[in-house]
Specification:
The structure is a homodimer. By secondary structure, the first copy, chain A, is an all-alpha fold. Chain A is built from ten helices and no strands. The first copy, chain A, binds a DNA duplex through helix 1, helix 2 and helix 3.
Chain lengths: ~200, ~200
DNA sequence: CCTACCGATCGGTAGG
DNA sequence: CCTACCGATCGGTAGG
C-alpha cells in the first residue's frame, strides 16, 4: 500500500491535486492554496501532495497551466477550424464571454483573478500569465488583421486599443457577477465588444 | 518612552501602518500584508502594529477604506462641482483612467486588484468592495441619466451595459501596464469609453 | 505516498 | 507601544 505508486497512479494523484488547487484558488486566490490544506482536502500527507511538484511555486505554476489549457479547450479549440477573419473573431468572443461567465470553478474565472492579482508581482506566475495573455493577443490581432484585409473592418482600424477593449470587457464579467449579481454580464460584454468593433448591436 | 502614546501620536502611527499596508498590498496583494512584515518594515513590535486594529481583518478593511478615500479625492472630488450630465461624466472618466494609470502605489491600482481578488470570497472586505463599487455605479448612472435627459445621449440608451463597459475598461489599465508595458492603456481606455458612449474619437 | 520532523512565521494576547 | 509568549500553520526535507 505504501511506497512509490505506479506511474499511472502518480498521474491520477497529480491531476487530483491540481484540480483541488484550482478549486481553492478560484474562491480564495492562488496564495490560499497551501500544501497543508490540499493534504487535508484530499486525505493525503503533505509530503504526498508536494512530492510531485518540488515546490509550491511549481504547483502554482502547473495550476495556472491547467487553467490555461481549459481556456484554450473551451474558447479557442471550438473556433480554430474557421477561417481567420471577423466571423471567427466574433465566434471566439462569444466563446470567451461564455467561459468568463461559467469557467467551471465555484469562485469565478481563475485566469482573470490571477491576472489582476499577479500583474504587479515578480516571479514565474507573473511571467507565465504575461506570456499566455500575449499569445492570446496575437490570436486576436491575427483575426482582426484578416477582417481588415477582407473589408469587414475599416482600413484605418487602430488594433491595439481594440484588443485592449476586448480583453477588458471579457475580464469584467467575473466581478460583475460575483459582486453585483449581474446575470447578464456575459451579454453586456459581448455587446460592448460589438460596439468597439463598430458592428450593429445584433446579428 | 514606552507606554501609551498621546492620541495624536497614535493617529500618526495608525496612518503610517495603513500607508505601509497599502504599499505592500499594491505589490503583492492584500493577503501578503502580515502583521509581522509591517512591524519589520516600520521598526515596530507586532503588538504595536495590531494594537489599534483589534484584528487583521480590521486592518485590511481600513486599508481598503484608505484607498477608497484616495479614489474619491482624486476622481470624484475634482468633478463633483460640475452639473450632472455628459460633460461631468467625461471629466470623471478622464480622472478615473488617470487614477488607474497612476494610483500612487508601486504595484498598480490596489482597488482594482482587490476587486478582482476578493470578488469570489466572503467576508467584510468582499462586502465593502461590493458596496463601494455599487455607489460608484450609482454616480455614473446619475450622470448618464442626466445626459439622456439633456439630449446628449440617445433616449434609448441601455444604461447597465454602458456602466459595465466603463468600469471594465477602467479596470483593464493595470494589467495592461504591468503585464505588457502598455504605456497608452489610459488613452485606450478613455477612447473605448467614448466609443461605448457613441461619441466621436476626439473632442 | 507515508511518518516524523525542521525552523520560520502566522494572528493574537497578557501584562506592563 | 514594548517584551514575552501562545498554539497553529507555513513550506519543505529525511528516510523509508
Amino acid at each position: 500500500m505504501a511506497g512509490r505508486a505506479s506511474a499511472q497512479a502518480a498521474l491520477e494523484t497529480r491531476r487530483s491535486v491540481l484540480s483541488a488547487a484550482a478549486e481553492i484558488a478560484s474562491m480564495e486566490g492562488l496564495d490560499s492554496v497551501t500544501i497543508g490544506r490540499l493534504a487535508d482536502l484530499l486525505g493525503m500527507s503533505k509530503a504526498g501532495v508536494i512530492g510531485q511538484f518540488r515546490s509550491k511555486e511549481r504547483l502554482q505554476l502547473e495550476t495556472v497551466e491547467l487553467v490555461m489549457d481549459a481556456f484554450r479547450a473551451r474558447v479557442w479549440q471550438p473556433v480554430r477550424h474557421l477561417d481567420p477573419g471577423l466571423p471567427r473573431l466574433l465566434a471566439a468572443c462569444a466563446a470567451w464571454v461564455r467561459y468568463g461567465a461559467d469557467p467551471g470553478y465555484s469562485g469565478g474565472c481563475l485566469l482573470t483573478q490571477v491576472t489582476y492579482d499577479y500583474d504587479g508581482r515578480s516571479g514565474a506566475v507573473h511571467d507565465r500569465i504575461a506570456e499566455g495573455r500575449a499569445r492570446w493577443r496575437d490570436t486576436l490581432r491575427h483575426d482582426i488583421d484578416a477582417a481588415i484585409a477582407a473589408g469587414d473592418l475599416p482600413p484605418g482600424t487602430d488594433v491595439p486599443p481594440l484588443v485592449y477593449g476586448l480583453e477588458s470587457l471579457a475580464a469584467g464579467i467575473t466581478p460583475a457577477r460575483l459582486l453585483h449579481g449581474d446575470g447578464r454580464a456575459e451579454e453586456w460584454a459581448l455587446r460592448g465588444m460589438r460596439t468597439l468593433l463598430g458592428l450593429a448591436p445584433e446579428g
